[in-house]
Amino acid sequence: MNSSAVEEECVLNEISKETGPPIGIIHSVEERDMVVKKTEDNNDSEQSRESDEDQSDDESCETCECDYCITPTEELPGEPLLPQIESNDEGKICVVIDLDETLVHSSFKPVNNADFIIPVEIDGTVHQVYVLKRPHVDEFLKRMGEMFECVLFTASLSKYADPVSDLLDKWGAFRSRLFREACVFHKGNYVKDLSRLGRDLNKVIILDNSPASYIFHPENAVPVASWFNDMSDTELLDLIPFFERLSKVDDIYDILRHQSTSQS
């Protein structure tokens, strides 16, 4: 793979990353043509430089305003992340569903059997992102949308994840979509804090391939194996009967605890 392809793969990882980004890579791509201007004060310049040197990478990410360092929300918002539940979803369980390596896999490398090709602008240049759908994702989303209030929650940037979702979700299964800025940046990871959704936690489930994403609420999680390109994979198909059982319960914890115990 040539250096250009390697760089593109690094950037795509940052667009769709579920864990905290390596700040050096992000800034080398996003800011390589930018001049970082710092206000120098004659009286306080030495103190400012010492303060800058003491900053950690996490602090830099929090203060940077570049496209790849969208500051995650670190405090509870005044309003819930989700709008008021729709009347036809009243009483339904809310299922939060991840995107990358759960429903799809994306790459800058050309793929002959790509289901979608998404143009994404990076650093002023439009790149083609090749997206593969996980086997059985169509029937999975269709059935899930019939049973639950489904919410797409991804640590990816919306400029990539939104057009992918437009093409992926033919049935309107996702009532809402949440992106990186809705995550909490915690110990190097983008965490999906379910308590901020505005839904009763005993009626919220998260389906995600990354345990770090649900570290705040592991008891609400249905883990799923990461998917890249195995076209014989049946994980989503196998999950449908399990979710059909879950759709009929008032409290999700008994079944999830039983499922966790049986798998351990």
TrEMBL record:
Q: Which residues cross the membrane?
A: none
Could you tell me the EC number(s) of this protein?
3.1.3.16
Region annotation (Disordered) ranges? 1-60
The site (Transition state stabilizer) lies at: 154, 192
Write down the chemical reaction(s) this protein catalyses. Answer: O-phospho-L-threonyl-[protein] + H2O = L-threonyl-[protein] + phosphate; O-phospho-L-seryl-[protein] + H2O = L-seryl-[protein] + phosphate
Q: Which Pfam families match?
A: NIF (PF03031)
Q: What is this protein called?
A: protein-serine/threonine phosphatase
Q: Which GO terms describe its molecular function?
A: RNA polymerase II CTD heptapeptide repeat phosphatase activity
Keywords, comma-separated and alphabetical: Hydrolase, Protein phosphatase
Comp. bias regions, Basic and acidic residues:
28-50
Natural source organism: Oreochromis niloticus (Nile tilapia)
Give the first-level EC class, as a single word.
Answer: hydrolase
Q: Which CDD domains match?
A: HAD_FCP1-like
Under the heading InterPro entries, the entry gives: Dullard_phosphatase, FCP1_dom, HAD-like_sf, HAD_sf, RNA_Pol_CTD_Phosphatase, TIM50
Q: What is the taxonomic lineage of the source species?
A: Eukaryota, Metazoa, Chordata, Craniata, Vertebrata
Which sites are catalytic? 98, 100
